[in-house]
Write the structure tokens for this entry.
Amino acid sequence: MKRNSVAVVGAAETTELGRIPDMSTIMLHADAALNAMKDAGLKPTDIDGVATAGISPVELAHYLGITPTYADGTSVGGCSFMLHVRHAAAAIDAGLCNTVLITHGESGRSRVGVGGFRGGGGNSSLSGQFEAPYGPVGPPSMFTIPVLRYMKTNNVTEEDLAMVAVIQREWAAKNPRASMKDPITVDDVLNSRMIAWPFRMLMCCLVTDGGGALILTSAERAKDFPQKPVYILGTGESVETPMVSQMNDFNYSTAFRVSGKKAFDTAGIKHSDVDHLMIYDAFAHLPLYGLEDLGFCKPGEAKDFVNERNTAIGGKLPLNTNGGGLSYMHSGMYGMYAMQESVRQLRGTAAAQVPNAKVSISHGVGGMFAASGTIVFTNEKG
Amino acid sequence: MDRVLPQPTPETQHFWDGCKAGELRLQRCSDCKDAYFPPRPFCPKCGSRSVEEFKATGRGFLYSYVINYRPRPDIGTEPHSIAVVQLDEGPRMMTNIVGCPQTPEALKLDMPVEVTFETFGEIALPFFQPVGA
């Protein structure tokens, strides 16, 4: 993929976020898609590429009346949409299609029209044989398993984890669309209900309904669209393991490191060039892993970086400025919302706008440290 | 409610047979000699199909864990550990730590643990307990 040869020309979330009991999963995809097409001034017949996860791209294309020449059903969890952006940029560059619609929709809370599209092989998959018998109940008791090792290695305390949630709530307080806006303290976090020690409820993401969509086309065409183009400067992706117990090391994510390095290398930027950062935060430890594995902090130094308020309002590296999965929204596959916030920041339309943001990174995780995708966006054609 | 149990495949049957016989069986590569887990009939490091099974010591240390406060109905009603142990032979595996209180005070990272098996019908699951428990 070439730098800045493809741009986001349409971006939108569902009209509502949070609790949407009157919309099924596929309609959440469609609501976001229709909003993004309106944002870009396009009709379904103008779209010739589709990508989605959770539902099949076939369902999406048919539901919206699109006849694509490009379809991507990459489904590796919550960062799938980062991979879709990466693949779409390459596809547009290669001439496979001109205009790609990427959608997410998930009735995470209300569970309306939720399909059975899940990977794995039940009790005979490796995770089914060697993890499920021990009682994990989804992400809260799986994604969290590495953290005690990370905490011991790096002298990270429960208070340090709590501070991640506290600072993200400060960002959420500035965002009218955030689900949780009331200020919280470290004590509030440490007194919230125990979910899976050392994780308390306020260190875990929300479970809400919503969706989002992006539309990408060539940078050459992008200048003729109504919105300020946001260019794809660099991209990365990787996968590691479907079993959290089999990660190479619990102190870092190999997928994060590989994806992040590829994104920085292809973008040709330094860390000091980054004005704004989104790190998928299904749980409070993820921003710490992300800051280190992307190279913004040395191993073990992310907790101090956060405690010193570098990622907070007015800090040198504004992080998760929508409030994140912990306070903004989290439908299940949050990666799309991270990229929506990157686009808003670079268009200059974010609720908590970072002044003069020119380069923004959205870094996603899929599964439980299973996969990763990283997109470097910029609003400067260069 | 019956415990959620593994369904062995041709590639993992030897492991579960070993558990039933009270042995923790690992595999290692005949070429590069590295032990690995979970089971598969080739070396994940070098790709060689020349691999062998062997009886592991069943000893290791507590690498990381959570205490799940929302237990699955098939496990029980009390908070319990979901842990990863690192075996003396190198590989790590998920398990439950049994034979001690399910508290942060009793579940010390890096403490030595040893395998113990519990039978559920056709399957024996490998659990780990503090050495000497």
User: Anything to note?
Assistant: The CA atoms of residues 275 and 357 of chain A lie 5 Å apart. Residues 116-120 of chain A have pLDDT under 50 and may be disordered. Chain A is about 30% helix and 20% strand.
